[in-house]
Amino acid sequence: MTRLQQTLRNSGKELLINAALKLAAKRRSFLALGLRELGREAGLNPNTFYRHFKSLDDLGLALIERMVAQLRGPLRQQRIAAAQAVIDHYGAENVNIRTRSGTVRAQRVNRETVRLFFDFVVQNQYGFIIGLRELHGASAVMREALRKAMSDFADDMAQDLERFQLMPECDSLRVQQAAMLVVRQMFMLSMDYIEQPERRPSLQREAEDMITAIVLGYSAMDDQIAPEGDDSLPGG
Amino acid sequence: MTRLQQTLRNSGKELLINAALKLAAKRRSFLALGLRELGREAGLNPNTFYRHFKSLDDLGLALIERMVAQLRGPLRQQRIAAAQAVIDHYGAENVNIRTRSGTVRAQRVNRETVRLFFDFVVQNQYGFIIGLRELHGASAVMREALRKAMSDFADDMAQDLERFQLMPECDSLRVQQAAMLVVRQMFMLSMDYIEQPERRPSLQREAEDMITAIVLGYSAMDDQIAPEGDDSLPGG
DNA sequence: CCGGCACGTATACACGCGTATACCTGAAAG
DNA sequence: CTTTCAGGTATACGCGTGTATACGTGCCGG
Questions:
Q1: Which of the 97-136 residues on chain A come under 7 Å of nucleic strand D at their beta carbon?
Q2: In terms of CA atoms, which chain A residue is nearest residue B226?
Q3: How far A177 CA lies from chain B's nearest CA (Å)?
Q4: Between A and B, how many residue pairs show a Cβ–Cβ distance under 8 A?
Q5: A187 and A212 in contact (C-beta within 8 Å)?
Q6: Rounded CA gap, B66 and B190, in Å?
């Protein structure tokens, strides 16, 4: 096998990453992966691992970066495209999610983004199983990387929420909180989506509704209570 | 040491559970715990494990049941007591969370329940670290048990939301969804609460707001969109 | 053409592991 | 008083592990 062919498809690095994907998803924690086990699955000598990675954490980081690189861009493009399509069709008035039309518009956009996300999930099942596991796993390095990744996704969403003015009454902290909540929940739902194929259609709808409810909820709240601890009971 | 004393405080079973708590929280996955490692930590012979548990899953279940038994009752009592106190003080009108006074009342109740929950979290840090880890871990048995536990907490909350009529416009499915969302999110937040002591006051507030926002959001949503896919855009 | 080097291999060692088997002890039941 | 048995111990075996050391091989810059 020539060097070029190796680089293109079967590089040892790629083989090891794929082996780790397969093994870590089915077995225990990432850090508990055996180098020999890994080498076996990859069809390589155990020691070859060290030619490519310094540690299991190192491999884990590569895995996360690879998935974020694949998902982040397209997800955002999809959201912006869907939002733009809705605006092009119905005009830019009443986009505030607290108006009836704003809610329906949001639902439309959600449908597209949720679909794209879940499609990606089923095509990267192992990655999501591992990601969710390691989000609270033993490897501090992977935990941190995954938090960062989720935070990035949330930043994207928050930016778009502000750009398209869905939550005009809220300051950016609230928008950020809402986005973070959505992202976290979508990641958790991805596990259900993988494990329970028969519930997928209803999960799709539940996810759409959840996003709308969260944005709506945070949006409405700041209207009703003061941003810092207000102890008066205006209605009672 | 007599048999009675053993049963009361230092029973081998208890020693093993505590050892598992300490080790599984710091190390890798629960299933990756070594029986020897465990025996060492508990000050017992490795084989003694089998006198009490059939498998690591078995031990894990014992752990979960123990925590649920400690938390579920008090948490619910606290919520009901706080809700009752608010009603006693301000009357039972305008409890709907979509009214201004309803929101403020909800915030008051949230403050108490969130505080109780987080107090329990800091007093059972190991348990929560393990629980969160195993929620997406390799042990199907523990995953299932943890899901069931969260679902039970959500059921409690949903029942109370209905009893106190905070979401009168919503059908029970929606109430259940909102409660589940809250519970899941509270569990995730517990990790932050443990790991970042300096953020605890702000996490307390964020959690209160999150609960209010979610209940409010789901409550408001059903008013704005039809329960099944409505494709019309009334406002646009 | 040749030296370095990236990638992969082979062998070996010491260690911790799960578990099987047998044994001890003290409480309680008859 | 004797039997039973749950709880705890001791020893031993075979295995998979991480890693250290040394070796092979084909690509590429000089």
A1: none
A2: A104
A3: 8
A4: 157
A5: no
A6: 18
Neighbouring C-beta atoms of residue B169, cutoff 10 Å: 13
CB-CB contact of A117 with A188 (8 Å): no
Q: CA of A3 to nearest chain B CA: how many angstroms apart? A: 38
Q: Which nucleotide is nearest to A35 (CA to C1')?
A: D18
Give CA–CA dist B26/B8, Å, rounded.
Answer: 27
Cβ atoms < 10 Å from Cβ of A2: 7
Which two structure tokens, joined as six digits, stand for A22?
């397969």
> Smallest Cα–Cα separation from B106: which of B117, B118, B96, B116?
B96
Q: Position B52: which residue type?
A: H
Give A47 CA → C8 C1' in Å.
Answer: 9
* Alpha carbons A42 and A192: distance in angstroms, whole number: 29
Encode pLDDT of A153-207 as tens digits.
Answer: 999 999 999 999 889 889 999 999 999 999 999 999 999 999 999 999 999 999 9
Name the residue of chain A whose CA is nearest to B215's CA: A217
If you search the block for the tokens 């060097």, which residue do you land on?
A: A3
CA-CA-CA-CA torsion for A111, A114, A120, A121, nearest 10 degrees? -130
DSSP sequence for B78-125: HHHHHHHHHHHHH-SSS-STTSHHHHHHHHHHHHHHHHHHHHHHHHTH
Q: For tokens 């938090």, name the residue.
A: A147
| CA angle centred on A192, ends A215 and A160, rounded to 5° | 25
List, for residues A21-38, the tens digit of each pLDDT value.
Answer: 999 888 778 888 989 999
Q: At what angle do helices A172-195 and A140-163 cross, to 10 degrees?
A: 120
Count of beta carbons in the 10 Å neighbourhood of residue B222: 16
DSSP codes of every residue in B13-56: HHHHHHHHHHHHHHSS-GGG--HHHHHHHHTS-GGGHHHH-SSH
Check residue A94 and give its pLDDT. Answer: 77
Chain B residues close to A33, C-beta within 8 Å: none
Please tell me whether the overall predicted TM-score, pTM, comes out greater than 0.85 for this model.
Answer: yes
Of residues A181, A153, A174, the one with CA closest to residue A218: A174
